Amino acid sequence: KILDPAVGTGNFIVNIIKRIPRTALREKYAHDLFCNEIALLPYYIASLNIEHEYYEKMKEYVPFEGVCFVDTLELAESQQLPLWMVEENTERIKREKEADIMVVIGNPPYNVGQKRENDNNKNRKYPVVDDRIKETYVKDSQATLKNQLYDAYVRFFRWASDRLQGKDGIICFVSNNSFFDQIAFDGMRKHLLKDFTQIYHLDLHGNIRKNPKISGTTHNVFGIQVGVGITIAVQSSKHTNRTLYHYRVPENWTKEEKFSFLGEKKNVFDINWLSVEPDNRCNWPTYAILSEFTSFLPMGTKEVRDSRLVESSNVEFKSLFRKYSVGIHTARDRWVYNFDRNHLANTMKNMIETYNLEIARWADAGCPKDIDSFVLADEAKIKWSNTLKIQLARQAKTHFRTIAILPALYRPFCKQYLYLDNIMIDRRGLFSTILPTSNSKLENTIIVVSDHGSRSPFSVIATNIFPDLHLLATTDAFQCFPYYTYAEDGSNRRENITDWALEQFRARYGEEVSKWDIFHSVYAMLHHPQYRERYAENLKRDLPHIPLLKRVEAFTETVRLGRALMDLHVNYEQQPEYPLTPLEDESVPYEQLTYVEKMKLTPDRTALVVSKGLTLAGLPVRCFEYRLGNRPALEWVIDQYQVSKDVRSGISSNPNRVDDPEYIVRLVKQVVTVSVRTVELVEELARAVMLEDWLGDVTF
Predict the structure, then answer these.
(1) Strand 297-298 and strand 274-275: pairing?
(2) C-alpha radius of gyration, the chain, whole number
(3) In terms of C-beta density within 10 A (0-12 exposed, 13-18 middle, 19 or more buried), how is residue 53 classed?
(4) SS3 string of 330-373?
(5) Cα distance between residue 403 and residue 53, in whole Å
(6) Which residues lie across from 651 on neighbouring strands?
């Protein structure tokens, strides 16, 4: 049907065929195009384009016999199966594999993997290429999450680098540009500089996730959501020095302006490249990364967190915190989170029953290896993840437990119930020692900060309940630094600030400094506007490092203001309500006034439409200055507190409380108070602690 002229595509192909200059050639392609499978279409169009371009320039037709219908990455594997669809194809592939290739040009696809495990549509695995990535890019990466290194375009970089076989040559790719500056690709950057003597990267921007102010259709050269770049990598035995060049077009340029720029420049010699000197952590570029940052006190290090001696008091840990952890990673938020406790219980009972039945069905079938194809894919009954399939393979059954339903902070100022179970939750991090569920009366306070590699602006918040992995952004991960740690049974409570850190602070500010003082001071510095602005690039690549301040008075102010900020954010539901003006429609019954379906701001952002009968007027401009990630705090509340129903699972979410119908209205006013007060405290912090207070003698 896709080739049927009635639906348009056929007309497109017919028009191509009509433009082919030779009658015999036209008949050949017409026959094959309409008789062979649609999968051959790219193969024929590539041949047509090349042959037609040659004809336009040379005014004669010569057949091009270099196009192969093949999975390029499969060329690296042991063999390529013959394809019956084109007789010459197998022979062409053989010639290509035996040829000395000097130039590789392409626009490889960008795709990390399937978004939903139930789809059973995982990327194809390429053992040879993936093993090469593992032993190079992955091995030399310092990133926590490395799955992005198996993105399709990264595989093509690895394949092309190896295809040159260490000889002189060039690769040129138009690809996702994230490898150039994101932390996950540090190992890839390191090996690119090993494999090539000169690298040119032209950044065409267009990353909508990084900059929501731009539009994919207007600013991105391909009309997509991810940024795009052109990379030219040269291996030349004539050059002994390895050089890296970078050029960024203005971020606000439209795609037409970018096309015009490319058409004008034509080649690499017409571009005013910026020479980049990578640092010892393989960061490109480094012009905004400040070296003094690493001389400050690190909040946490992998060496300390992962040390088997972490509980030993005889070991000196040179970091502020002993332990830290990512937030709760569920892989099935719709299933394990809900505003309504009873609704969550029913959802989880049904899913657990389905999961246990699937274990039994799989075992009865003789435990087939292809679990992906075997399991029930109906997302109305179960939400799979790779981890849950591993649990199924272990035949690890579970049972519904009421005590597993616990309060959690799903998004900023948005509490929901969480079903916290070892089987139903993908990864709990170290939370069995941060908030052990064996004792629900345990108390803790947790500082949640942007993890290195985050694409959204640096953010921080404090909480005393379970924080979600994506607490402050829908895609980025966040690291959690608790004040206390426990044994898994809830015993052995310990302060998580290291004794080494206490020594550093007491040596400078006096013996009366406590670990709580350090905890509050750290929270204040993470909010300091100059700190965030000055070290914005450092914070994208590393966990925060906290400077010791020169003046005792400055440190004392950070303790006071940090304590005030923490109390404001942890206990936001106890804050006074901001005096907004209610505008009520008297024709609407009282019980409907506070019932929220979906709130929205008025165009001038001075009022919030809560329901059909209630608008809260008098929103202060300052409440929008307190931002977490890419959104003001109030907009997080507007986004989360709405009635919704997930299309795939059918699970509904209703934030309205039967026992407390005015909760959402009250919450809005409290979050406005929190926002305005936070802005005031941060301004006070900026006046009390100035830049010169932490620059100078900063080495510990």
Answers:
(1) unpaired
(2) 29
(3) exposed
(4) CCCHHHHEECCHHHHHHHHHHHHHHHHHHHHHHHHCCCCCCHHH
(5) 70
(6) none
| Count of CB atoms situated within 10 Å of the CB of 298 | 20
The structure tokens listed for 622 are 């300052």
Res. 309: pLDDT tops 80: no
121 by Cβ neighbours in 10 Å (0-12 / 13-18 / 19+) ranks as exposed
- Compute the distance between CA of residue 558 and CA of residue 682 in angstroms, rounded to an integer: 10
- The torsion of the CA quartet 245, 250, 251, 254, rounded to 10 degrees, works out to -120
The 10s digit of each residue's pLDDT in 433-478 is: 999 987 777 899 999 998 876 778 899 999 999 999 999 877 778 8
Determine the Cα–Cα distance for residues 450 and 480; give it in Å rounded to an integer: 9
CA atoms of 463 and 468, how far apart (whole Å)? 11
Phi, psi angles (nearest 5°) of residue 380:
-80, -10
List the beta bridge partners of residue 546. 297
CA distances (Å), origin 100, targets 78, 89, 129, 344: 18, 19, 19, 61
Backbone φ and ψ of 385, nearest 5°: -140, 165
Q: Residue type for 32, please?
A: D
Axis crossing angle, helix 23-35 with helix 41-58, rounded to the nearest 10: 170
> Which tokens is 319 given?
């970091």
The whole-chain average pLDDT of the chain stands at 87
CB atoms within 10 A of CB 444: 19
Q: Among all chains, which residue has been given the structure tokens 């939903």?
A: 116
Q: How many CA atoms lie within 13 A of 387 on its CB side?
A: 11
The first and second tokens of residue 72, run together, are: 């390029």
**Which residue reads 């082919």 in tokens?**
20
Residue 304 in tokens: 């300390």
Cα torsion through 8, 13, 14, 20, rounded to 10: 160
Q: What pLDDT does residue 452 have?
A: 73
Identify which of 279, 290, 141, 278 has the alpha carbon closest to the alpha carbon of residue 201: 278
Reference 248, options 194, 293, 287; nearest CA is: 287
Measured CA angle at 676 (ends 674, 680), to 5 deg? 110
Number of residues assigned to the chain: 700
CA distances from 319 to 117, 315, 581, 659, 668 (A): 38, 12, 48, 46, 38
- Which residue do the tokens 């997930």 mark? 646
Distance, in Å, from the CA atom of 266 to the CA atom of 66, rounded to the nearest integer, reads 26
More confident: 88 or 109: 109
Other Cβ atoms within 10 Å of 575 Cβ, number? 18
How far from 526 is each of 536, 561, 599, CA to CA, in Å? 11, 12, 31
Distance CA 162, CA 171 (A): 11
Point out which residues pair with 339 in neighbouring strands.
none
- Report yes or no on whether pTM surpasses 0.85: no
650 Cβ contact list (under 8 Å, min separation 6): 380
What angle do the packed helices 9-19 and 23-35 form, to 10 degrees? 160
Report how far residue 559's alpha carbon sits from residue 521's, in angstroms, rounded to the nearest whole number.
4
Alpha-carbon distance of 679 to 682, in angstroms, equals 5
pLDDT at 231 over 90: yes
Give every CB contact of residue 541 below 8 A, 6+ residues apart in sequence: 183, 281, 283, 289, 452, 453
% the chain with pLDDT above 70:
88
Closest CA to 67 of 87, 48, 47: 47
Closest CA to 383 of 428, 415, 350, 411: 350
- Spatial distance between the Cα atoms of 560 and 557, rounded to a whole number of angstroms: 5
> Phi and psi at residue 176, in whole multiples of 5°?
-55, 135
Q: Which residue has the tokens 């952004």?
A: 473
Sign of the CA dihedral with 300 first, then 301, 307, and 312 last: negative
Say what the pLDDT of residue 684 is: 97
Is the CB of residue 244 less than 8 Å from the CB of residue 213? no
